[in-house]
Design goal:
With 199 residues, the chain is mainly alpha-helical. 53% of the residues lie in helices and 9% in strands. It is built from nine helices and three strands.
């Protein structure tokens, strides 16, 4: 039976180079050299074959060697990118720094996600957590966006009303296309028509 991944995954240390593999990754390399499949290795170690396959791909992409300073930097960077929050702007890992730069340029969450190589949800949640840890001075709230880039975002944007043409603040131009004034007028007209029908 496969062991749950959540607890074990946290205890696996980071491998920074092929000459500095942790014991878990070294066991995977040894088993692969004996021509064992990912499924067999997963059963042996108590993990899913998908997790073993992902780990194997990462091992193959590692550099052959790194010096001590670079190894320490990689380990700290990976620890932060896996959820630990930095205490200052200088401690930001490359991914967080890239997300902040793109967001400050006004890019949408989905565009940042494509650029960085992760999900939109991860970008949104990570920026919220970074803002909580570092403050709005480092991670500012996004400003209102133009209607050409606003679909469904975490900030309102200005779009023209379909009825009167006046621009108003909307959270989503695909759902809310009529301004509050026109909605009030429309509801009064509908109430009068309904009263005539029932009279």
């Amino acid at each position: 039976m496969t062991a749950p991944l959540g607890d074990k995954r946290k205890s696996i240390p980071v491998s920074v180079a092929k000459d500095r593999l942790n014991s878990f990754d070294q066991r995977i390399v040894d088993m692969r050299s004996r021509k064992m499949s990912h499924v067999q290795i997963g059963l042996e170690l108590g993990y899913s074959d998908r997790m073993i396959a992902t780990r194997w791909r990462r091992i193959k992409l590692l550099p052959d060697t790194v010096d001590d300073a670079e190894a320490a930097r990689i380990i700290a960077s990976k620890a932060r990118s896996m959820g630990e929050l930095p205490t200052s702007e200088a401690e930001l890992c490359e991914r967080d720094r890239m997300m902040l730069d793109l967001r400050k340029r006004g890019m949408l969450m989905r565009d940042i996600a494509e650029e960085v190589g992760c999900t939109r949800k991860y970008v949104s949640e990570r920026l919220i957590r970074l803002r909580g840890a570092l403050g709005e001075a480092v991670v500012p709230m996004a400003a209102g966006k133009d209607s050409s880039t606003c679909h469904s975002t975490d900030v309102p944007c200005f779009i023209p009303c379909l009825r009167c043409g006046e621009k108003f603040n909307s959270w989503s131009r695909t759902r809310n296309r009529i301004c509050p004034n026109c909605k009030r007028v429309n509801s009064r007209v509908n109430d009068v028509q309904e009263a005539r029908v029932w009279a």
